[in-house]
């Protein structure tokens, strides 16, 4: 059993890389939603056992990918029996532009968590917003409600800025700490 489960969709590998960085910091299980919007065998069971569920998806056209939305709609079976009630939730997203309406995706994740009767954990990292800040600074994108990362459309997953990956690992560590508050 894992205390933290990350369920995510990645269209081109960028969101997968971010999921892996969050998982490193959180010591979490990772569940990839496939190209058809389905979970792997045992995915629903892993989510049922987790104390904290992390949602992740790229932001496409101002919202999570359709594959993630298919998963979200399928979670209505869990909702019906209140299977995730009182669990902790968090979320992350990646898009090609600095803003890219990423917060709309975070808000979608938050709303999904609220539908399930969950409790939300935000990023908890002050943004790097001074003149000396660079793309390699923690929380350069400036998210609060969840982790937001940026990778240009012509960048490979290996080219995600180091600061975004460090922020993802720090977010994972925060999620581990949030579990301690439940004890």
UniProtKB/TrEMBL annotation:
Which cofactors does the annotated protein need, by name? FMN
* Superkingdom per UniProt: Bacteria
Query: Domain Flavodoxin-like: where?
Result: 4-149
Q: Name one GO cellular component term.
A: membrane
Alphabetical list of PROSITE patterns matching this protein: FLAVODOXIN, FLAVODOXIN_LIKE
Q: Which GO terms describe its molecular function?
A: electron transfer activity; FMN binding; NAD(P)H dehydrogenase (quinone) activity
UniProt entry keywords in alphabetical sequence: Flavoprotein, FMN
Where, by residue number, does the polypeptide cross the bilayer?
A: none
Q: Pfam families this protein is in?
A: Flavodoxin_1
The record's PANTHER family line, in alphabetical order, gives: FLAVODOXIN-RELATED PROTEIN WRBA-RELATED (PTHR30546), FLAVOPROTEIN-LIKE PROTEIN YCP4-RELATED (PTHR30546:SF23)
The protein's name is Flavoprotein WrbA
């Amino acid at each position: 059993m894992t205390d933290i489960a990350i369920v995510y969709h990645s269209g081109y590998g960028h969101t997968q890389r971010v999921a892996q960085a969050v998982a490193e910091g959180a010591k979490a299980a990772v569940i990839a939603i496939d190209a058809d919007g389905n979970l792997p065998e045992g995915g629903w069971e892993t989510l049922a056992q987790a104390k904290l569920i992390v949602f992740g998806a790229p932001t496409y056209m101002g919202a999570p990918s359709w594959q993630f939305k298919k998963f979200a709609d399928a979670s209505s079976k869990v909702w019906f029996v209140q299977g995730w009630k009182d669990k902790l939730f968090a979320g992350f997203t990646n898009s090609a532009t600095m803003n890219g309406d990423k917060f709309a995706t975070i808000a979608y994740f938050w709303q999904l968590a609220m539908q399930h009767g969950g409790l939300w954990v935000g990023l908890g990292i002050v943004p790097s917003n001074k003149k000396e800040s660079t793309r390699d600074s923690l929380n350069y994108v400036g998210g609060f409600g969840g982790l937001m990362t940026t990778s240009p459309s012509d960048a490979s997953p290996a080219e995600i800025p180091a600061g975004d990956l460090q922020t993802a690992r720090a977010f994972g560590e925060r999620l581990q700490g949030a579990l301690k508050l439940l004890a």
